[in-house]
Amino acid sequence: MAAAAGGVRVLPASPNWYSSRCSDASGDGRLFGFAARHRVCLLDVSAAAPEFYGELIGHTERISGFAFCRCPGQSNLCASSSDDGSVRIWDTGALSGVAEYTLHQNAISALHWSPLVKDLIVSGDEKGIIVCHWLHRSDSQQFFPEPRTIFCLTCSPHNENLVAIGYKDGMVVIIDISRKREVLHRLRGHDDEIHCLAWCPVPGEERLPAWQDEFQAAPSEEGRVPNGELTQDTATKKGCYLASGSKDQTVRIWSCIRGRSIMTLKLPPTKRRGGAVDPTVKERIWLTLHWPSGRSTEIVSSSFGGELLLWDLTLSGKRKWTLLGSSEGQNHTRIVFNLSSVKHQDKELLFSISMDRDVKCWDLSNLECSWTMPSLGGFVYSLAFSPVDPGCLAIGVGDSMIRVWNTLSLNNIYDVKTYWQSIKSKVTALAWHPTKEGCLAFGTDDGKVGIFDTFSTSAKNKPPQISSTYHKKTVYTLAWGPPTPPLSSGGEGEQPPVTLYSCAGEGIVFQHNPWNLNGEANDINKVIRDTNSIKHKLPAHTEISWKPDGKLLALGNEDGSIEIFQAPNLKLLCTIQQHHKLINAIRWHHDHGSQPELSYLIASGSINATIYVHNLKSIIEGTSESPLTITEPFRTLAGHTAKITSLSWSPHHEGRLVSACYDGTAQVWDVMKEEPLSNYRGHEGRLLSVQWSPVDPDSVYTGADDFSVHKWQISKQQHTRPPQGKKSIELEKKRSMQPKVKAKKKKKPIEKSPGKQDLSDVMNGDESTKEIMLEENGVLEHEGEKAQETELLDKVSMTVSKDTSSSACDYSFSLPKTLVSQKATPVKKDPPKEKPTPDASLKKRKPRSILPFSTFMDHRSKDELHQDCLRLAACLKTKDENEDKSPELKDRIHLGLFTDRASLHKMIDVEGKQHLENGHPELFQQLMLWKGDMKGVLQAAAERGELTDQLVAMSPMVGYQAWVWTVEAFAKQLCFQEQYVKAASHLLSIHKVYEAVELLKVNHFYREAIVIAKARLRPEDPILKELYTSWAALLEKDGHYSMAAKCYLGASSPYDAVKVLAKKGDVTSLKTAAELALISGEEELSATLALRCAQDLLLSRNWVGAEEVLRQHKTLLGQQLVFCLNELLCKCLSERNPCDRKSPVPPCYHSWELKREASFFDMVIDVWQNVFGMDTTEQVTSAQEQLHSIEHPPSTSNTHPKQVLFHISHDLTLAALSYQTSAWDEAVKSILGAVTRSYDAGNFTLMQEICSIILPEGCDDLRHKVNSTNSQSMDASRSLEAFVAYGLLYDLWWNPLKDSLVLQKAVSDAVLCPSEQTAPEEGYISGETPDQTVVKTDENLCNTTEVCRCESDSRTSSADLIDRQAKLSGCKVLLSEEIAALQNTQRDIAEVQQILADMIHQHQQQRNNLQENTNGSTQESNLQQSTEIGSDKPCSDSSQLNCKDEEPITLPELTKQLLKAKQKLAEFPDNLKVFPFPDVLECCLVLLHIGSQCPHELHEQALDLLRKHGNADIHKKAGRRFLT
């Protein structure tokens, strides 16, 4: 969130306490950052006054460490560590995360960015583990010097390998990170927490006077060494001092060479100035240090009560310190936690953060405080502007303090006073006295109401007056209004002109007498009852608002109604029944506008998101005796998606309202038009309060649960209406639906099939826990939902996240619920009555007795039953007489039921045996359970593989070991039955998480395995990553790339995710992969993929898509320009040569406005400037650098035409960039590159088109602009001219004068139309050289040309002829003598090389044949033969021509020829060989073919060149007609 944009002024959240380094200043001195809860707040400190710059948001738990990178060029990078164990790297320029790593298993307690190694971050945690992480190579090392809690650590500014670490028990350790496990020194001396370590900024250990005596007093070992002095001198040069501050109230200076303390500074008992802590309380202490840069003898430390001391280490004696801040109120009032500094021009500034929630800046040159920035330590519940002193803003904060901000102060924009006396909980409500200056009423979360006097100077520490009447719950609102009975009954002067009304969470409004706060306050419900003779129970009040003229009182209620009463007796005029939900805010329109009727408008907001405005004019002026009910609003303002927390009318306009809402935004409305005007989204939390500035019509102040107050400008907001996101709607839905859902869940499942009941219980359970949690947050209805606005915990911001998690689980449960109802209903519908009856009959027949034998015995004949009775009596009698002996029942075993235990056991055994014989082991097991012999049952069942869920459930009664053993056995049994998931669940029940996960993994149940591992193991457990990667590998193999990518993301390897997504290679995959790489910070990879994607889109002629893909990457600006030019070039080409046949995919062009009248380059540059903002030379040069770094391979006749066109666009883009910066030499070379590329690709028409698009007027204009002193540029220019002339030459040849069109058609039909291609194109495609094409053309044309010549000569108009001749004269540049010679030599070399290649090929073939036949002839003779034989096999044309008349050429002769030609080539000047040139002899032939229209001297020159250089047979053959 950047605040600098849009002119936002912010009171930020407070810095975190008790952290050794949670604030730091950037190396360039521009920014100062500090950790505030789980965010980092950045201030711009480059000017005289600090400005809020923005916040770094991403951590989920408290930030414990923060440090900027001090290396030059990287001052925008910083790092933060959090209690969640992660370290994040940030870019302050973009206010976004760059990287994150989680290498600690425990909470991180210290962090530092090495001042010497630009990518090294060192962090330490509470268990004593140090992690060194090198960003660029993503490498890290762990050290564990001591198993103690780390409190602070600092990297040395002089030696990149040294790190000093301070521990909780007072130990200081210096380690060398280059050698693993190397501890250099263990420095012992402190006996309590080390709060800070600081290296001396100046290397070396020169002895200072104050340290001399210590050396003498304790003679060192060095003294005894013969060369002691010498060793010490050399040592002092390389050492460095280290200072440590500890809770034991001392600062020690340590020598790194000697490894011991050389000076101890004891904190002096400074006299506290205006301290805020009771002197009887034991003093808290935090001792932090700062060693100013460049000063080896001075050090700054914190002291007891927030004072800062500057120590002079050269002074001896006790008084070595000076106090910073001379005047009253400059010092902090509580302990200071961190000090950090920056250099500004010539002075050094020091920043301090303290428990008093102030950030201060000190000038070390004069030890004075330059500025103070206040901050807030809780939710901002209330904002109020003083009606008497308009710029005075009171802020009620959850840190139990009130801030009064003088927003109009000129010399200090953060002129804030703090009031904390007698406040013991959050300040939830504020109200200024309407007429008395400095009289501020406040209400708190614990129900207290009081009044501060902020005006008198002596009031700084004066406690407030507190009302003796307390509310039972949170105070919601305060309002000053006219007295009502009983206070209004007194005479004039006996009663206060205004009294204070307070409304709180229990629904009661009290009237307090400001003249006598000790007296009892009155409950206004009594007056309301008496005046209106109401008998029923009054609704609970949640909001109170007096009309500014004091005549009417509006009360908002918990049931959503608003009641309007008339002062002073509170007669009820009307009730507004509109909201139906708890009222949060009511505001009357001001009465000082030009339209007095507007003062009757009343705006109200409740916990449903709509704001209603009512006009009460008619009701108030009406004469109705009985109260009315209003159900229709005057205006409705809809748009917010969560509850409204605060409203404020503009004092400058009529009918303008601003609202604050839980959707995280503030909205300005034009009430009369019901129109949203401006929406502010700068807060990172839910808004709780809003006030329109009384002095600036364009400014609004808002407070939120992100611990900050923002002042923002209405006119500078880019949004006009609230966000309509899913989130806010869901939140609202969830809140409103909650009670209903619960009721449903309780009723439904119980009515339905009982089998599903357990699920409904679970659901009810879940619901009730949620209810409890929400109750804590104060959302439950009876408590009044208003309480949510004043959550009872400061940590409620954290419960927001918990809230969402509970909602997630709620929704996850709602899915089974619907399934239950779907499954349950068919049971009711389908079989109406048939099924229950057979079911019932089955049940009657089936219930099998668990004791069938004894049941059967008890159903015998009466006689036998009588016998049983007699037998039983006899047995019991004998047992009574002889107790030791068990009664003998013989065959009547069933009577064991009525005798002793032994007999019962016998009976159970008989019954059990019968069950087993009848195949009912489950009944046998149940009997054994009753008997208590479970162990045997379990073992037997396990051996037979007959364990069941029921047996496993019973097994714990045998004992823990037996249970574990049974579950394991059951899991094995389930595996045999291939019920792996169930087996894993059972293993989980005995806490065998790893085994369960492994079981699922082995059987490829990866999804389930991950769920278990993630739910039950530590997040950093390596098994999780292993699961993700194995699953990803499997998915990748099966081609499920998206799923595999998700797995890699889960395993924190976004790079692999990107790679696997890109594997498919289609456009959408590449696009997604590129975006994913960008999110993951893999910018280079992202750019590569984006370019691939764009090139694929280009093939389907979708330039719009390609541009969208490239737009996200700054590094691809050059490519964007190429694509843009490519699009314009294709547009031009298609307009010049419209194609009849429709392409299957129509091209997708941008709808840019084009300057058609301008040249092509001007048109392109105009688009660049408008679309890409290519205005500065820096942008141009960076684009040129990007494009120069890309080299495309030379084009051939096989290159795809679209590819050729893209490469040409690349060259032309470079030309356009050079054209833009008037670098004509470069421009010429780039244009030449484009032209020759089309020439090399054999696309002659394209070459001509490009010449005529880029150079419609020819090359004259360019030639004059090129630097004539630069020979290379002149050569390039000449080459370009030659190609333009070459295209023109063919044009003149193929398009004779109009009069001879008939003839021309005949000619072209005869020769050029077979493939509908131009002659050179046809030649290139068939693999011939241009001159061969000319020969072919010549043979076909020998007769027709003559005819054509005569015909045209007789008819052409002289004007056309003159024009053609002028154009032909321009082709003179083609007839270059030296280039003809050079090309001839190059042809010779190519010819010889071809013959050589053919020979080698033939020789290899023969050798292969030899090896196959093995006829015994030696290889030597074979070689001889192959060298002497000419090319027998059909070789290329050139070699055939050469071999026709001559003797076979030998290898030495050929080598000689090659050498000679190469020497000849070397004699040509280099500048001729650099740039390509059209074939001179081919041009001569074309000129001769043109005939009589060709100027005489050109004709002669062409003939002359042909005679001189046309030695090759092909040229002789072609020029035969002209030369004979």
Explained architecture:
Helix content is 40%, strand content 20%. It is of the alpha+beta class. Helix 14 (934-944) runs parallel beside helix 16 and helix 34 packs antiparallel against helix 36 (1330-1355). The longest helix has 37 residues, at 1377-1413. It is extended. The protein starts with 8 loop residues before the first strand and ends with a helix.
Please describe the topology of this protein.
Elements: E1 9-11, E2 23-25, E3 31-36, E4 39-44, E5 51-57, E6 63-68, E7 77-82, E8 87-91, E9 96-101, E10 108-113, E11 120-125, E12 130-134, E13 139-143, E14 150-155, E15 162-167, E16 172-176, E17 182-187, E18 194-199, H1 209-217, H2 221-224, H3 228-238, E19 241-246, E20 250-255, E21 260-266, E22 289-290, E23 298-302, E24 308-312, E25 321-323, E26 336-344, E27 347-354, E28 358-363, E29 368-374, E30 380-385, E31 392-397, E32 401-406, E33 416-419, E34 427-432, E35 439-444, E36 449-453, E37 465-466, E38 475-481, E39 499-504, E40 509-512, E41 522-523, H4 524-532, E42 541-546, E43 552-557, E44 561-566, E45 571-577, E46 583-588, E47 601-606, E48 611-615, H5 617-621, E49 628-630, E50 635-637, E51 644-649, E52 656-661, E53 666-670, E54 675-680, E55 687-692, E56 699-704, E57 709-713, H6 726-751, H7 757-776, H8 796-829, H9 836-845, H10 852-857, H11 862-881, H12 901-917, H13 921-931, H14 934-944, H15 949-954, H16 960-976, H17 980-989, H18 993-1002, H19 1006-1016, H20 1022-1038, H21 1041-1050, H22 1054-1062, H23 1067-1079, ...
Parallel strand pairs: 45-49
Antiparallel strand pairs: 1-57, 2-3, 3-4, 4-5, 6-7, 7-8, 8-9, 10-11, 11-12, 12-13, 14-15, 15-16, 16-17, 18-19, 19-20, 20-21, 22-23, 23-24, 24-25, 26-27, 27-28, 28-29, 30-31, 31-32, 32-33, 34-35, 35-36, 36-37, 38-39, 39-40, 40-41, 42-43, 43-44, 44-45, 46-47, 47-48, 48-50, 51-52, 52-53, 53-54, ...
